[in-house]
TrEMBL record:
This is Saccharopine dehydrogenase [NAD(+), L-lysine-forming]. The keyword Nuclease does not apply. Keywords: Amino-acid biosynthesis, Disulfide bond, Lysine biosynthesis, NAD, Oxidoreductase. GO terms for cellular component: cytoplasm. It comes from the Eukaryota.
Length: 401
């Protein structure tokens, strides 16, 4: 079998510094003799182009992937730029954000429909081990970074006259130590202004993301007794929850799959009046356009240059802001990329078999009995899911016609 060429595209999302492949994992793939790797130049990526070139990758100009051979899977992280209806005839490995009926999902997946018979999406969010656990996820660093940004937003607000100031542009940190040191330096002022120790509440605390958030709060200096660690048991009674409004920072880390009662709502906030402590909500899950979002108090994603958005309509209590950045781990891009890519590596090593096995049925759904066969099972399941979601989109389009 000829080596499979992986094509690492540059990231188009503003402020995105992470990479799906790192020089470390690229070298491990190359050392097998079963891969070649093409890397697009990217001044935004945390890893210098020269780091990839040093381990044997071929460098090409950025945004040249549309003309790459159709046999080269295109590897990336974040979604492609919006407002583009051009067909996608390549195999793409990425977070496409179109499988949970997010805003514009039909338009996104339809690009692969237009790219048949060769187009295929292996969505990174849905690559799963046999036990259903995700093969690789940025969850831990998302929670860690989300708790950090939330605390920085709290410090900026509480430390200002009338709590009118808002957190400005945030940039990546060299490492976790530098981030923790920066936040620790600001917590003393928060405590002095509040007249007590700050409190945090994390929902989804038993998952990767929640563990990251809890770990950050502990390392930053929050007292363990002041970190409420909630999961399914605590939320089973259904919200809204007064306990969230009693915290200073609330971090949502759940993986939403269906509609659930809201954790907080405009009505519950209004009912708390001036007894509310909550000043910052961090929605790490960032299901902003999902109609089932259990935090219906905001409607836009925030960004690294404008990390917070105010909650409108408050008539009592302190101002409240929401952090809804959908790529929080890029706050620690090198560490987050290395962890994610290392977890993805075992599956990538089976990709040549998956691509070869799929070749005879290009443009046709995989048979159910074939999905669980072979070491490349994870890719076959992702292939089957692609066809299911494409069928959902086709059905929805027919309803709208």
């Amino acid at each position: 079998m000829a080596p499979l060429n992986l094509w690492l595209r540059f990231e188009t999302k503003e402020f995105e510094h992470r990479s799906c492949l790192t020089p470390t994992t690229a070298k491990k793939l190359l050392d097998t003799g079963r891969f070649t790797i093409t890397v697009e130049r990217d001044p935004q990526r945390i890893f210098d182009d020269a780091e990839f070139e040093k381990v044997g990758c071929k460098l090409v100009e950025h945004n040249s992937w549309p003309s790459a051979p159709l046999t080269s899977p295109i590897v990336g992280l974040k979604e492609l730029p919006p407002n583009d209806e051009s067909p996608l005839p390549h195999t793409h490995i990425m977070f496409a954000h179109c499988y949970k009926q997010q805003g514009g999902w039909i338009d996104v997946i339809s690009r692969w429909e237009a790219g048949q018979p060769t187009g295929m999406l292996y969505d990174l969010e849905f690559l799963q081990e046999e036990n259903g656990r995700r093969v690789a996820a940025f969850g831990y660093h998302a929670g860690f970074a989300g708790a950090a940004v939330g605390t920085l937003a709290l410090a900026k607000q509480v430390g200002s006259e009338g709590e009118k100031a808002r957190l400005g542009e945030i940039k990546p940190y060299a490492n976790e130590g530098a981030l923790i040191a920066d936040v620790r330096a600001q917590l003393a002022d928060v405590e002095a202004k509040l007249g007590r120790k700050p409190r945090a509440l994390v929902i989804g605390a038993l998952g990767r993301c929640g563990r990251g958030a809890v770990d950050f709060f502990k390392e930053a200096g929050f007292e363990d007794a002041n970190i409420a660690k909630w999961d399914m048991a605590e939320t089973s009674k259904g919200g809204p929850f007064q306990e969230i409004l009693d915290a200073d920072v609330f971090v949502n880390c759940i993986y939403l799959t269906s509609k659930i009662p809201s954790f907080i709502s405009p009505e519950s906030i209004a009912a708390a009046g001036d007894k509310r402590n909550l000043r910052v909500v961090v929605d790490v899950s960032c299901d902003t356009t999902n109609p089932n979002n259990p935090i219906p108090i905001y409607s836009v994603n925030t960004t690294f240059d404008k990390p917070t958005v105010d909650v409108d309509g408050l008539t009592a209590g302190p101002p409240m802001t929401v952090v809804s950045i959908d790529h929080l781990p890029t706050l620690l891009p090198r560490e987050a990329s290395e962890a994610f890519s290392t977890d993805l590596l075992p599956s990538l090593l089976t990709l040549p078999e998956a691509v070869a096995e799929r070749s005879p049925r290009q443009g046709k759904p995989i048979e159910a009995q074939d999905v669980t066969k072979g070491p490349e099972r994870v890719w076959k399941e992702a292939e089957a899911l692609f066809w299911n979601k494409l069928a959902d989109a086709q059905q929805e389009k027919s309803k709208q016609a």
